[in-house]
Design goal:
mainly alpha; Non-ribosomal Peptide Synthetase Peptidyl Carrier Protein, Chain A
C-alpha cells in the first residue's frame, strides 16, 4: 500500500510542485485537474501498475485523492484465491 501511495504521490508532485499534497486531499476540489491531466493520470496508473481502467472505474471518487487511487489500484491488482 505504501509503495503504491508513494508512486502516485511522486507522479502528482511533478505537476503540483508548489503544494505538499496530502493523501486525502481532493485534487479536483483544489483545482489541479483538467480533462487533459485526468487522461494523463489514468494512463500513468494503467502503465505504472499494469492494470486496465475500465469504464466503470472512471468515477471521480476513484481519482480524487491519493488514497482513493491507491484503493483502486489495489482492488485491480489483488488476486482473490478460491476457498
Amino acid at each position: 500500500m505504501q509503495q503504491t501511495q508513494a508512486k502516485i504521490q511522486e507522479f502528482l508532485s511533478r505537476f503540483f510542485r508548489n503544494h505538499d499534497l496530502q493523501l486525502d486531499e481532493d485534487i479536483f476540489a483544489l483545482g489541479f485537474v483538467n480533462s487533459m491531466f485526468a487522461m494523463q493520470l489514468v494512463l500513468f496508473i494503467e502503465q505504472e501498475f499494469k492494470i486496465t481502467i475500465e469504464n466503470e472505474d472512471l468515477d471521480f471518487a476513484n481519482f480524487k485523492t491519493i488514497n482513493a487511487m491507491t484503493r483502486l489500484v489495489e482492488s485491480k491488482t489483488n488476486v482473490v484465491t478460491p476457498a
